[in-house]
Amino acid sequence: MTTSRVFSDIISVMNKKVTINDIAKMANVAKSTVSRYLNGGSVSAQTRLKIERIVQEQRYTPNTFAQSLKQQTNHTIGVIVPRLDSIAQSDMLRGLDECNQEDTFLIVNAYQDPKRELAAIEKLQSQNVGGIILLTANLTDEIRAALTASPLPIVIQGQDEPDFHRVIMADQHGGETVGAYVKTLHPKNVLLLNVNAEIDHAVGHDRFMGIKAALAQTPYTEVMTDFKLDTAKHDAKKAMAADQYDLVIGATDRIAVGAMQSGYALHQKPQYIGFGQSFFSETVTPNLTSFEFSFFEAGKQLYRLFVKVRDESPQTIQRVVIDGQLVIRDSTGPQH
Amino acid sequence: MTTSRVFSDIISVMNKKVTINDIAKMANVAKSTVSRYLNGGSVSAQTRLKIERIVQEQRYTPNTFAQSLKQQTNHTIGVIVPRLDSIAQSDMLRGLDECNQEDTFLIVNAYQDPKRELAAIEKLQSQNVGGIILLTANLTDEIRAALTASPLPIVIQGQDEPDFHRVIMADQHGGETVGAYVKTLHPKNVLLLNVNAEIDHAVGHDRFMGIKAALAQTPYTEVMTDFKLDTAKHDAKKAMAADQYDLVIGATDRIAVGAMQSGYALHQKPQYIGFGQSFFSETVTPNLTSFEFSFFEAGKQLYRLFVKVRDESPQTIQRVVIDGQLVIRDSTGPQH
DNA sequence: TTGTAGGCGTTATCAT
DNA sequence: ATGATAACGCCTACAA
User: Fold this and answer.
1) Does pLDDT of B14 surpass 50?
2) Which residue, among B38, B79, B230, B283, would best test binding to A if mutated, counting the most A CBs under 10 Å from its CB?
3) What is the DSSP letter of B38?
4) Chain B nearest-CA residue for A86
5) Which end of chain B, N or C, is less packed with Cβ atoms under 10 Å?
């Protein structure tokens, strides 16, 4: 009777997932012993071997739900990204992956929509993630409040928000570097294609500070556009039709490429400079000069910072800055 | 004593997560009553109101781990993608999102590496996801075996694998359409930049069948390259330096763009055709003629198919084909 | 309609 | 070193 009961248990296991209890029965030990074995507790060499064999045979893996339930925390990190169709973002995710030891990422696309971003934060919390990494171009007050209210470890990227642990790109330094380079080009009339600082302060404001300072002695026009290729193309065309420019600086590579398209259509050949790190720069003709940030590195730092925040709960706000470098290509080359 | 115990419980809750038990105490009912309320069981209007108020006040959300543990299944779907820096993939993910009612996606990047793909499958299983959606360019025998062995609902996309529920793109039809169009261009000498069918059968084989058939009367050269821009550029340059072509067909937009770069460098101006749906086509100059698949639609169908497989366990293998359309742009335009 | 009790798989405490 | 037992939060017979 007892034997057949155990036997049927073992049989019935075949199609379900084998549990710590099954292992215990098969090894004729208590489940707590198995648990200790699994977690590096003290077990005699003899039983260790016995259990080890069975665990391997049965391909046992612990039930993560039970673990999380018990431990009151888990190793799933919610990652909210503003968009997925962007090299910058996917490089950053690759960086997260790269450093990751044991966490799994729950990636949520916010589609550049603050409402969705907020919804994502709430949904992630209701799903009991162990923490949140938020990549963002813009923090609304609602989102700030939600982040502040959350008991979870949270790290953000993209904006230099003083209240949150964060990793940011050296936008200001990038602008200064580009500014210095621009001076060596001696442009006569410059078109700046920027985005509103309300939408993305790091880009719209920080990135352009140094550029504008460098253009103190040079005539320039600033036109506000947005991150979309079509919009940039349209806005650039309007501006370039109205006046003649010999240098166009886009807030992002994408915007610069939009301008290139317009320049091509208008048979104009100004020089172009972009920002970011995309294959854009090398797929367009001429290849685009660009200030490139290492988003991959940013991702790595982001993960490290998150782990630090989660495991050490630092009392002071952490801030990590990722630098970049100017890569000069044909679009500011001699033939222009 | 009892009062203060309850009181301290309520206080202590402030920083933790409120549970069904807390709600029950506050409402002076049993936790099973609260559970019934939450799951639409029978509760008197009176207690329903009482509980409702408290649940809302406390912003109670159930602990998903406890739920999953109890229910032995959960609403997390593992999605394995070959890469993230691709419009095709992110459009597909957007399609998944679009249809999604209540599932959450655990997105795993396999970085186009079969080993990682296999590892991802195993890891997802050990994390007890409720199913797997596999976007893939290539199924190894090991992966086939892992999929077959899995008890989970699984749907794949990308390859026309007869043993698995799948959503595929109409690569063959796309090739035929392009073939028919190519005939109208009356090219003298065509360069086909393809990828090895071993790496991606749907692309390397299916996609080019129709094209080659259409070129029966036309001289053409087939060069094998890979999906990377740099490789394509390199291989195209070699081929285009060795012979003169008036039409170049790339297995993907990216490959076609690589060829464009080489053509530009060599001062050649053939016509170009690509495959896929990317902003490539509209960022390069000239804009690229391309056979475009709706990956967004594919994502939607993929989710629907998955849900069907999960909820209805169909006995016959399901197969969904997503069509595309030829979009003619400047790269095959009159000025060439 | 409501409450009691048991169990999902795991870990931790406490005896033995 | 080992095993019995309770607990994590939830759901669900079953009883009242």
Assistant:
1) no
2) B283
3) H
4) B85
5) N
Phi, psi of A131 (to 5 degrees): 170, 170
Helix (H) or strand (E) holding A184: helix A171-185
pLDDT tens-digit series, residues A6-19: 443 443 334 468 89
User: Using a CB-CB distance cutoff of 8 angstroms, which residues of chain B are in contact with residue A264?
Assistant: 285
What is the C-alpha to C-alpha distance for residues B174 and A218, in angstroms, rounded to an integer?
Answer: 52
DSSP per-residue string spanning A234-266 = HHHHHHHHHS--SEEEESSHHHHHHHHHHHHHT
Percent of chain A scoring above 70 in pLDDT: 94
Contacts of B265 (CB under 8 A, 6+ apart): B237
Is B321 in contact with B168 (CB distance < 8 Å)?
Answer: yes
DSSP character string of B86-120: -HHHHHHHHHHHHH-SS-EEEEEE-TT-HHHHHHH
Strand D contact with B16 (CB < 7 A) = yes
Cβ contact B290:B253 at 8 Å: yes
Kindly tell me the burial class for residue B316, based on how many C-beta atoms sit within 10 Å of its own C-beta (0-12, 13-18, 19 or more).
exposed
Residue B10 Cα to chain centre, angstroms: 45
A-to-B residue pairs, Cβ atoms closer than 8 angstroms = 101
In this complex, is the C-beta atom of B180 within 8 Å of any C-beta atom belonging to chain A?
no
In tens, the pLDDT along A232-251 reads 999 999 999 999 999 999 99
Going by the DSSP 8-state scheme, the letter that residue A269 receives in this structure is -
3-state SS class at B250: strand
What chain A residue is nearest to B94 in terms of C-alpha separation? A109
Tokens of B207: 């996609």
Residue A328 has pLDDT above 80, yes or no: yes
**Closest to A76 (Cα-Cα) out of B117, B131, B76, B90:** B76
**Per-residue CB contacts under 7 A with strand D, chain A residues 69-98:** 69-70, 72
Q: Which residue, chain included where needed, has tokens 């973002």?
A: A89
Q: How confident is the model at residue B7 (pLDDT cuts 50, 70, 90)?
A: very low
CA–chain centroid gap for B303, Å, is 10
Q: What is the average per-residue pLDDT within B51-58?
A: 92
Q: Give B59-115 pLDDT, tens digit per residue.
A: 899 999 999 998 888 899 999 999 888 888 989 999 999 988 789 999 999 998 999
| Candidate ranges A99-108, A163-172, A275-284; pick with highest mean pLDDT | A163-172
The predicted pLDDT at position B222 comes to 97
The letter for the amino acid at A62 is P
Distance CA A241, CA A250 (A): 17
Answer whether residue B137 shows pLDDT above 80. Answer: yes
Whether B270 and B282 have beta carbons less than 8 Å apart is answered as no
What's the rounded Cα separation, in Å, for the pair A258 and A236? 7
Backbone angles phi, psi at A163, to 5 degrees: -90, -5
A273 dihedral zone (left: phi>0; alpha: psi -120 to 50; beta): beta
pLDDT at A334: 67
Residues B189 and B245: beta-carbon distance below 8 Å: yes
Alpha-carbon distance A246 to A336, whole Å? Answer: 9
Element (H, E) at A115: helix A114-126
Q: Count of residues for chain B?
A: 336
Q: Give the pLDDT of residue A335.
A: 55
Where do runs of H (alpha helix) occur along chain B? 2-13, 20-27, 31-38, 45-58, 64-71, 87-99, 114-126, 141-149, 171-185, 201, 208-214, 229-242, 253-265, 280-283, 295-312
Report the C-alpha dihedral over residues A199, A327, B229, B245, rounded to 10 degrees: 120
